[in-house]
Amino acid sequence: MIIGVILLIHGNLVPLRSKNLKGGRSLYSGPRSTLNSLGDIQPLKLPVGVDEAGRGSLAGPVVAASFPLLYLPQIFITDSKKIKGDEREEIFNYLLKERFPFGVGVVSNEFIDREGILSATFEAMRLSTLPFLYKKELDVKTHKMISLDELLQEAVKSYENYSAFFPERMFISNILIVVDGNSIFTESIPLVSMIKGDEKVSLISFASVVAKVVRDRIMRKLSEEFKEYGWDRNKGYGTRKHFKAIEKYGLSMYHRRSFLDKR
Fold this sequence. Notes:
CATH class: Alpha Beta
Shape: globular
Order of helices and strands: EEHEEEHEHHHEEHHHHH
CATH topology: Nucleotidyltransferase, domain 5
Strand order of the largest sheet: 1-6-4-3-7-8
CATH superfamily: Ribonuclease H-like superfamily/Ribonuclease H
Structural class: alpha/beta
Radius of gyration: 18 Å
Number of strands: 8
């Protein structure tokens, strides 16, 4: 089962206080050649950073986010893995408040078990880019790909209603996807994959932060129903306490059986 959640908002980001947040107008924090190579490969394209969260988790969905360069932030971030959870929440809340555009795709554990984590990750990435590939609005409540149980639907309500703005001039020929790692999830859109892209391209870092925060919020919501697994703390990852809880209580409906059957 798949859900495609679209978030579209716009505006300007104000500076935040964090050692991982740097003042300035450049979105690219890596070597100068990184910026030049992007420009040389696809001049006059709108770059859209894409990243995922939850790929290695034992439970819950995999989430991807897309962050386009429609508005120039007053800050840029790098290496989102070094940003603490409360700082990620702060960044995410500012993105909402200042109405920056981004897209989110959520793919369930059932799809992961059926199709594999790689296909699920690519599908989440594809779903996250949908807002930037179509000129008309997509209604997330009637979208044909939404087919999830009530609890997971409830878990995503905190952000599914932010769909608001679809730029008229955006279409596939104007888009350049910039993705972390080797995630070539589409052949129909110009795409540049970058090893350690999260450390080099701030657009990818913003996408990573959005994906992580959205997924963390989903797992905290699911944890209200399944308190015994500690998902509000471990976010579904394979901690010692999580494995002990699985041994004691068995698997829940949100565990990835294809991951755990290998143990």
